[in-house]
């Protein structure tokens, strides 16, 4: 057995029942184009490949490339960091992305999917339990932040089930959870960029009012007084619809800086 490498954030899933539950949520089918992030030694890859789906395994660990290639000749294997891959190269607007993703790069991976949302149908991930809570958090809670707002805007996110550390080798110090992200197809692209900027700016000073946070951001020169959102609130107190109002106001009154 290949020994997990700490710097890659590797914790190999070893429980077949959990693997099967994840596969059932993915529900892979013939004609699907599935990118698996960090297949490891192929526990989930095997089920995906058997479904008849086109499977692309993205694995940063050179040690398992030969093992995967021998076990799954029908799977395209890419020895690269997923964050460095251009998803447009796969010539699909219906990509499905799955994996037991390293906890230390979970947020960057999710933000990459959001940036490429037009290319992606859905994603099923095993993530740290605390991150899963942040992904589905509601306004007014301590977990509600940038991740929850952006996912709510770009997708429908479902908390599937919690996972014990005991099913991994080595055992992580935290619980995990499986989440499913279904990306929306009716996104206003002309608003998306400034919406992301507004959300990040609003949470830039979490303890401050919206007015103060926005005045300390790239929107410092914009007077939001006519935006129909209560600027005395903090970002965590807003609905997603409030952030949309702010973004629409900014789009009318502000030139987006790259």
Folded structure, characterized:
- A 7-stranded mixed sheet has the order 4-3-2-5-6-9-7, with helices on both faces.
- It is of the alpha/beta class and 258 residues long.
- It is built from 9 helices and 9 strands.
- It has 2 domains: 6-183, Rossmann fold (3-Layer(aba) Sandwich); 189-253, Orthogonal Bundle (Helicase, Ruva Protein, domain 3).
CATH level-two architecture of the largest domain: 3-Layer(aba) Sandwich
Mean pLDDT: 90
Distance from N terminus to C terminus (CA atoms, Å) equals 47 Å
User: Nearest-angstrom radius of gyration?
Assistant: 20 Å
Proportion of residues in β-strands: 15-25%
Question: What is the CATH first-level class name of the largest domain?
Answer: Alpha Beta
Number of strands: 9
Strand order of the largest sheet: 4-3-2-5-6-9-7
Assign an overall shape. elongated
Q: Superfamily at the CATH H level of the largest domain?
A: Vaccinia Virus protein VP39
Low-confidence stretches: none
Secondary-structure element series: EHEHEHEEHEHHEEEHHH
Examine the coordinates and then state which fold CATH places here, giving the name of the CATH topology of the largest domain.
Answer: Rossmann fold
Q: Count of helical segments?
A: 9
Report the sheet with the most strands, covering strand number, pairing sense and barrel closure. Answer: 7 strands, mixed
Number of domains: 2
Class based on secondary structure composition and strand pairing: alpha/beta
The level of helicity is 25-40%
């Amino acid at each position: 057995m290949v020994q997990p490498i700490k710097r890659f954030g590797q914790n190999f899933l070893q429980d077949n029942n959990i693997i099967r539950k994840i596969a059932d949520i993915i529900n892979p089918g013939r004609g699907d184009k599935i990118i698996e992030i960090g297949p490891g030694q192929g526990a989930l890859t095997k089920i995906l490949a058997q479904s008849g789906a086109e499977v692309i395994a993205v694995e940063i660990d050179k040690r398992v490339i030969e093992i995967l290639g021998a076990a799954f000749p029908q799977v395209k294997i890419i020895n690269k960091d997923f964050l460095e891959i251009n998803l447009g190269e796969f010539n699909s607007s219906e990509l499905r992305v799955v994996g037991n993703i390293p906890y230390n790069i979970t947020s960057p991976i999710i933000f990459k999917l959001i940036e490429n949302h037009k290319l992606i149908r859905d994603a099923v991930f095993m993530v740290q339990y605390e991150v899963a809570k942040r992904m589905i958090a509601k306004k007014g809670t301590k977990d509600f932040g940038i991740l929850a707002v952006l996912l709510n805007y770009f997708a429908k996110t479902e908390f599937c089930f919690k996972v014990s550390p005991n099913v991994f080798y080595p055992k992580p110090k935290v619980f995990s959870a499986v989440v499913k992200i279904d990306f929306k197809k009716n996104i206003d692209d002309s608003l998306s960029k400034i919406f992301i900027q507004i959300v990040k700016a609003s949470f830039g000073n979490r303890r401050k009012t919206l007015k103060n946070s926005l005045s300390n951001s790239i929107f410092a020169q914009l007077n939001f007084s006519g935006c129909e959102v209560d600027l005395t609130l903090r970002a965590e107190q807003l609905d997603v619809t409030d952030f949309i109002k702010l973004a629409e106001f900014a789009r009318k009154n502000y030139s987006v800086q790259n």
